[in-house]
């Protein structure tokens, strides 16, 4: 059983840790301030020089977590355009310092009150990640505070667990850059299934560009609104391969339909589609709303299938949906129906915490920091392919 030296932990002789969190892995720049408070200092709770991992995890699990500030500024491009890494990096450099100053003011703290500076180390887009990491390193040197590099995916999971109260769920992590089904085991978040090509959010965003939907507040949100008005379910490729999924073929198919069939009747001469008089039936013209509806229904069904299979494998009765696409109410509704059939529960957060934000980086970073973890300046480089299961989750031992 792993043990920790009590005197090496920040809560050894005090109850409170305050952390600043900086997120900038994509087009959303987030700054958060979080305060973690133990009931008693660890020195008062445990005798001796060491503490077992199980006991430390129990102490951290019971602490109070207060969100002191959670600010975000999004880089939005014109309809039909995506966001390039270099332009997104410029946006982050422009807004991060004012956003940090505003967060400190809202939290009613000064730099002297900050115990750790947490930042997204990956995965994500290289340029934006570097821009935010440079600011984190600079503040660490100026304020003489430790750095804590955070895995973006783990940040989503820990924030979701904190907000919803889910204990040991199967996690569906769906965002613009990531699609994974995850479950915890032996101090790691294990990946049970994932996308083989593009992420679900990227699929939705790219289709939004084809039909020229606005990027404000987000392409995925606008697709969701269009889908609510769709009435025809168009057959699209259903690409589940074991525990993995593929979205590139679906995207190509629906893009082709958008370019060739919008506003056009669907007619066929097959007997299966004949009317009562034996004449070929003619369906109403396809609309952008129909395609958004069909795209959502197909890809969400795929995600729910692999999530349910993971639940059956580990015997879990909880599902936690995290990531920006997790805000989609139709996805939550479909997942809820599956869960009800299994007698399980679904947990999800609202846009404050499911969309990329600084508070999730601050929270996950603080949990790591409270186990004695810190990132040296030499190791604070970013990585665009930082796998979820590479993180040693020392703050959990269940």
TrEMBL record:
- PANTHER family named among the record's database cross-references: TRNA N6-ADENOSINE THREONYLCARBAMOYLTRANSFERASE
Q: Which residues bind substrate?
A: 173-177, 205, 220, 224, 328
**Under which name does UniProt file this protein?**
N(6)-L-threonylcarbamoyladenine synthase
Q: Which family does it belong to?
A: Belongs to the KAE1 / TsaD family.
Which HAMAP family does the UniProt record give?
Kae1
**EC number, UniProt record:** 2.3.1.234
What Pfam families does the database record attribute to this sequence?
TsaD
| Chain sites annotated for binding a divalent metal cation | 152, 156, 173, 356
Q: A Gene Ontology biological process annotation?
A: tRNA threonylcarbamoyladenosine modification
Give the UniProt keywords, A-Z. Answer: Acyltransferase, Cytoplasm, Metal-binding, Nucleus, Transferase, tRNA processing
Q: Which cofactor does it need?
A: a divalent metal cation
Q: Do the record's keywords include Disulfide bond?
A: no
Where, subcellularly, is it found?
Cytoplasm; Nucleus
**GO CC list:** cytoplasm; EKC/KEOPS complex; nucleus
Biased composition, Polar residues: where in the chain?
263-281
Q: Where is the Gcp-like domain?
A: 68-362
Q: Which reaction does it catalyse?
A: L-threonylcarbamoyladenylate + adenosine(37) in tRNA = N(6)-L-threonylcarbamoyladenosine(37) in tRNA + AMP + H(+)
């Amino acid at each position: 059983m792993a043990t920790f030296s009590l005197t090496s932990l920040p809560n050894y002789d005090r109850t409170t840790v305050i952390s600043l969190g900086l997120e900038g892995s994509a087009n959303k720049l987030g700054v958060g301030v979080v305060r973690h408070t133990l009931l008693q200092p660890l020195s008062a709770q445990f005798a001796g020089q060491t503490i077992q991992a199980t006991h430390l995890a129990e102490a951290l699990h019971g602490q109070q977590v207060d969100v002191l500030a959670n600010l975000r500024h999004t880089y939005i491009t014109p309809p039909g355009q995506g966001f390039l890494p270099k332009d997104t990096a410029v946006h982050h450099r422009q807004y991060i310092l004012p956003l940090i100053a505003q967060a400190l003011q809202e939290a009613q703290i000064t730099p002297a009150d900050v115990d750790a500076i947490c930042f997204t180390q990956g995965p994500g887009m290289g340029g934006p990640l570097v821009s935010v990491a440079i600011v984190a390193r600079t503040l660490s040197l100026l304020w003489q505070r430790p750095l804590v590099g955070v895995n973006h995916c783990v940040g989503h999971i820990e924030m979701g667990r904190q907000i919803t109260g889910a204990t040991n769920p199967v996690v569906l992590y769906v965002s613009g850059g990531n699609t994974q089904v995850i479950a915890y085991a032996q101090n790691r978040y294990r990946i049970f299934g994932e996308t083989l090509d593009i992420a679900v959010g990227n699929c939705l965003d790219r289709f939004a560009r084809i039909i020229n939907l606005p990027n404000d507040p987000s392409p995925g949100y606008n697709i969701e609104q269009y889908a609510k008005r769709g009435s025809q379910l168009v057959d699209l490729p259903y690409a589940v391969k074991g525990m993995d999924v593929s979205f590139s073929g679906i995207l190509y198919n629906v893009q082709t339909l958008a370019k060739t069939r919008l506003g056009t009747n669907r007619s066929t001469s097959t007997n299966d589609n004949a009317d009562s008089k034996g004449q070929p039936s003619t369906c109403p013209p396809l609309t952008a709303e129909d395609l958004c509806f069909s795209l959502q229904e197909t890809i969400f069904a795929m995600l729910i299938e692999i999530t349910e299979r993971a639940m059956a494998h580990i015997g879990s009765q909880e599902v936690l949906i995290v990531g920006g696409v997790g805000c989609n109410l139709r996805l939550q509704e479909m997942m809820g129906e599956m869960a009800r059939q299994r007698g399980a529960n679904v947990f999800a957060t609202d846009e404050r915490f499911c969309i990329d934000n600084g508070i999730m980086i601050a929270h996950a970073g603080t949990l790591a920091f409270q186990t004695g973890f810190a990132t040296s300046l030499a190791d604070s480089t970013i990585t665009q392919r930082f796998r979820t299961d590479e993180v040693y989750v020392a703050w959990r031992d269940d």
